[in-house]
Specification:
This protein is of the alpha/beta class. It is built from 16 helices and eight strands. Among the domains are: about 80 residues, Up-down Bundle (Four Helix Bundle (Hemerythrin (Met), subunit A)); about 190 residues, P-loop containing nucleotide triphosphate hydrolases (Rossmann fold, 3-Layer(aba) Sandwich), CATH 3.40.50.300. An eight-stranded mixed sheet has the order 3-2-4-1-5-6-7-8, sandwiched between helices. Helix 7 packs antiparallel against helix 8, helix 9 packs antiparallel against helix 16 and helix 10 runs parallel beside helix 11.
């Protein structure tokens, strides 16, 4: 609900009650009603016998004296049974805002505060649901299985189908054979646990937190192919950083795609973040202006959006290199983070993207989106084995809380239970 200007949340609801609802005095209503004609008074016998021969008259009813006008009722006390639900909701949001949560009345994309344990359980449930297709192909192999060559062959096929790649698949199977032999594992559940440990060890180098506060401002450049979800990821990252008391400035460097600038500005409005943009401007110039503005404003983080492009479009890859050089002219050692946003459904093609963008830009981190519903979750094992660029965040949905830092243990747990 958009509140009128110069109106507080609580005074707005006081003014909302119209004065016409106040009860009018009874005498005013009596004056407005037409006066009734007095009825003809019956005689003594009629009053005594009630108008009927031999019948006793009923006891006379005392005439009612006119009541005094009722006093205006005082407003009812606000107890648990008489609470305006809308006003109560606004009061609740106001209390949250006073505790340090920024924004106005919590936009629908904002994450509600809650218990950390409940958040972790909710995240693991969403991660397992998102990776269910990949998990089913692997976990079902161990149900009542015998530890023999047939199991290893089926595991090889399942890992390749999950886009783990030949290199990572061979690495996992060789080490699994060795571990089964050394530890003398005879139970299928024990072999499954051994595979989970190997998968965690393989993906552990991908774990790396995004460090904030190293530079003022921390300049981040975001790249990726068309449709990977760069702009949405930038909006979610901005909200996450604000939770750590980081001021953010966005640069609409995607001047090619229609409505890309407007989409980023919508995210800026949701998060109360300034967006630097130029209509049909040069993306390198937009990035430079954003860095200069970030330095002048004293913001903590500047994120530069870029247009989507394929690694095979060499002229567009050269444009990315130019944007990075121009950012460096605006601030020494910038950009400090070069992130690649990857669609988790692309499978082995994602590995080709990592190699191409890393060669061109020297990537510092990855954000893997759209893992929900994919059967290709093994791509992280392929990245870890072939090009271990740190994975800062993974996403399993559209909501803000569906983008979380990557954890090798959580990911392996979601895959193999």
């Amino acid at each position: 609900m958009q509140l009128p200007p110069d109106t507080t949340m609580f005074s707005f609801f006081k003014k909302k009650k119209p004065e016409a609802e106040t009860a009018a005095p009874a005498d005013a209503a009596a004056q407005a009603a037409p006066a009734e004609q007095p009825a003809e008074q019956p005689g003594f016998l009629s009053r005594l016998f009630g108008g009927r021969d031999g019948a006793l008259a009923p006891e006379p009813v005392p005439e009612s004296t006119p009541e005094a006008p009722p006093e205006p009722e005082s407003p009812p006390a606000r107890d648990a049974t008489n609470v305006d639900p809308v006003a109560s909701k606004i009061a609740e949001d106001a209390a949250l805002l006073s505790n340090g949560y920024e924004g106005q009345l919590f936009p629908e994309t904002a994450e509600r505060p809650g218990n950390e344990t409940e958040k972790k359980k909710s995240w693991m449930a969403r991660l397992k649901a998102g990776l269910a297709k990949t998990s089913n192909n692997l976990s079902l192999l161990f149900v009542g299985a015998r530890i023999d060559e047939d199991l290893y062959e089926e595991l090889e096929g399942a890992l390749l189908m999950s886009d783990a790649g030949m290199d990572a698949t061979q690495y996992l199977l060789d080490n699994l054979r060795r571990k089964v032999k050394e530890d003398k594992l005879l139970d299928a559940a024990a072999v499954k646990g051994a595979l989970k440990e190997l998968l965690v060890d393989l993906m552990r180098p991908l774990e790396k937190p995004l460090e904030l506060g190293r530079h003022e401002p921390l300049v981040m450049m975001i790249a990726g192919v068309n449709g990977a979800g760069k702009t949405t990821t930038i909006g979610k990252l901005a909200k996450h950083m604000q939770r750590f008391d980081q001021s953010v400035l966005l640069a609409a460097g995607d001047t090619f795609r229609a409505a890309a600038r407007e989409q980023l500005m919508v995210w800026g409005q949701r998060n109360n973040v300034t967006v630097i943009s130029q209509q049909s401007g040069d993306p390198a110039a937009v990035a430079y202006d954003a860095v200069q503005s970030g330095k002048a404003r004293g913001v903590d983080v500047v994120m530069v959006d870029t247009a989507g492009r394929l690694p095979t479009q060499l002229h567009l890859m050269e444009e990315l290199k130019k944007i990075k050089r121009v950012i460096g002219k605006g601030m020494d050692d910038a950009p400090h983070e070069v992130l690649l946003v990857i669609d988790g459904n692309t499978g082995q093609n994602a590995l080709a993207q990592v190699k191409a963008f890393d060669d061109a830009l020297q990537l510092t981190g990855l954000v893997i989106t759209k893992l929900d519903g994919t059967a290709k979750g093994g791509i992280l094992a392929a990245i870890a084995r072939t090009r271990p660029v740190p994975v800062y965040f993974i996403g399993v949905g559209e909501k803000l809380e569906d983008l979380q830092p990557f954890s090798a243990d959580e990911f392996a747990e979601a895959l193999l239970g």
